[in-house]
Structures are given as C-alpha cells and as structure tokens.
C-alpha cells in the first residue's frame, strides 16, 4: 500500500473529523480486534499515540519497516502518525490505551533515549528480563483502565500522572534494552532485520527451511539471527516459523472446507501424521477436534 493511501483514523474505523472531546480512551484488546477477524489493516492516527498491553496470545505488529512478531506478555507502542497494523491470535487478550499526544508534551522532552524509543512503532517484551519496569508497565496499564472507567474524585489529575509514568517507564524499558547511544544504530538494524525476517517466514515457512536459509538472506549468521530474534520477540527463528504455520493451520481448519490431509500437505508436511503431532503438541488438540470446537463456537 502506498503511504499516501494509508487511511487516517481516530480509532481504527472512526475516521478523522468525527466529533468527540477526549484525551484518553481505554478498552479491552478483543473488543475491536474480534470484529475485524483479529487482523487490523495498515492505518495511522495523526494526533494519537497508543499503548497495547498484551496479556495473552501472540501476533505480528505491522509497520513500514516490516513485520515484527510478539508474544505475551508484551507492550506495543504506536507513535502519533506512525503507519501500523496488527495480526492477533484468536486467544489474544489485554488492553488498548489511546492518548491524545499533545496532552503530554513533557514525556517527549524527558530524555533523548526515551524520546527516540517513543518516536516509532515498538514491541517490548514484559517478561522477567524486563524488570523492574516491565511489571510496572503492565500494572500501570491495568490501573489506568480501572481509573478511567470509574468516577473517583481527582480522576483526571491522577490519570494524567499515571499515563505520564506509563510512557516514561515504557520508554525507559526500551532505552535500557537499546544500551548506550552508540549501540542504538545497531539495535535499529536488528529491529529491521526482525521485520524482514517476519516477511521471509510468511513467504517460506511452508517450505520448512532451516535457520541458515533466513540468516543468509538477511546477511547475518544463524547464531546472530537467533540471538536477536530471542531478544526482540522472545522466541527462536524456528519457533517463529512454527507459530506462523500454526496460525495458518488454525485459519484453514476453521474457515476452509479442505480436508485435514490437504491442509497438512498445503502447509508443507510430507505426512499428515507429522502435521497431527505438530498441531497437538502446540494446542493440546488434534486438528479434527480443534476444527469441530471452533466451528461450534462460530455457529453460536
């Protein structure tokens, strides 16, 4: 999609120009994602920034630099005007905070490293390695959601302070992961490689290629590619490829009439029995049982 054709929205399909005086909005992640079949096409919010707290599931963050996989627990940050989109797994859960960017100018002026992190589209793992700020980011997002939907005295002042703290801690988390300023260029290249890796996996995962195949095309060693994949996404290259296959398998099982054997072959499995074992190991269910369960849910 040409950058000039990327639509501008307030909140997904709410086009710029609609009325509504607000500076902060919070909702559960599935609320809109489910309506769009868990895929949000490329768009942008010129005057808004967003923070996604992903507490369950996984997915892909789409941007101009490519596709970046993520897995819960994670925080996704979208800078004002940044082109972005999402693919979420059907079990994804969490919160989405949308903030009028002009409300908090002090955040961008707080520190150059924090400002650099908050100037783009970011995915930050909130696992044990993200301490101490990771758990605080998750807790703050939940508290903001609860406070916003309440009516306690001093709510707006407290929300202003909590949102400021959330963004600063998220920026600090990203700045700490980036290391000294001299390393930032290298980290940005690695982030771009992860975006390119996501596109390569989407194109070739059905071929069941080894890590070296992807590493060669990205101009790095297999060990380095695995290292940056784990750092940026929390998963190895093979795990990312397996996740992509699993998402494709789930989609085909639910939304196509193809026999399970045909789906297995279309996903590059030479023997449907291998596909059955792969799917059951990942989900705890056979492909047939998964298909019946999900179609029953859709039927109401």
From TrEMBL:
PROSITE patterns: HTH_ARAC_FAMILY_2. Keywords: Cytoplasm, DNA-binding, Transcription, Transcription regulation. InterPro entries: AraC_XylS_family_regulators, Cupin_HpaA-like_N, Homeodomain-like_sf, HTH-like, HTH_AraC, RmlC-like_jellyroll, Tscrpt_reg_AraC-type_HTH. Residues 195-293 form the HTH araC/xylS-type domain. The keyword Cytoplasm applies. GO terms for molecular function: DNA-binding transcription factor activity; sequence-specific DNA binding. This is Helix-turn-helix domain-containing protein. It comes from Chelativorans petroleitrophicus. The lineage of its organism: Bacteria, Pseudomonadati, Pseudomonadota, Alphaproteobacteria, Hyphomicrobiales.
């Amino acid at each position: 999609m040409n950058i000039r054709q990327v639509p501008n929205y307030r909140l997904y399909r709410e086009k710029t120009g609609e009325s509504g005086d607000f500076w902060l909005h919070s909702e559960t992640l599935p609320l809109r994602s489910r309506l769009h079949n868990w895929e949000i096409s490329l768009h942008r919010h010129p005057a808004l920034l967003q923070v996604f707290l992903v507490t369950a599931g996984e997915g892909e963050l789409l941007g101009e630099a490519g596709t970046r996989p993520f897995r819960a627990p994670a925080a996704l940050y979208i800078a004002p005007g940044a082109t972005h989109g999402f693919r979420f797994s059907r079990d994804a859960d969490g919160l989405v905070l949308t903030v009028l960017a002009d409300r908090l100018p002090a955040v961008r002026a707080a520190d150059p490293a924090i400002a650099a992190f908050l100037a783009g589209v970011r995915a930050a793992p909130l696992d044990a390695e993200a301490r101490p700020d990771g758990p605080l980011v998750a807790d703050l997002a939940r508290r903001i959601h609860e406070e916003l939907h309440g009516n306690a005295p001093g709510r707006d002042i407290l929300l202003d302070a909590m949102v400021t703290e959330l963004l600063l801690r998220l920026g600090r988390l990203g700045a700490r992961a980036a290391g000294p300023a001299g390393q930032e260029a290298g980290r940005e290249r690695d982030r771009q490689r992860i975006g390119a890796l996501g596109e390569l996996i989407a194109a070739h995962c059905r071929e069941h290629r080894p890590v070296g195949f992807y590493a060669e095309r990205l101009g790095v060693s297999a060990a380095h590619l695995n290292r940056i994949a784990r750092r940026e996404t929390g998963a190895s290259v093979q795990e990312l490829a397996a996740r992509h296959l699993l998402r494709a398998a789930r989609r085909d099982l639910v939304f196509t009439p193809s026999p399970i054997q045909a789906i297995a072959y279309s996903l590059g499995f030479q023997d449907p029995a291998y596909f059955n074992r792969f799917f059951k190991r990942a989900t705890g269910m056979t492909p047939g049982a998964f298909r019946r369960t999900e179609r029953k849910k859709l039927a109401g």
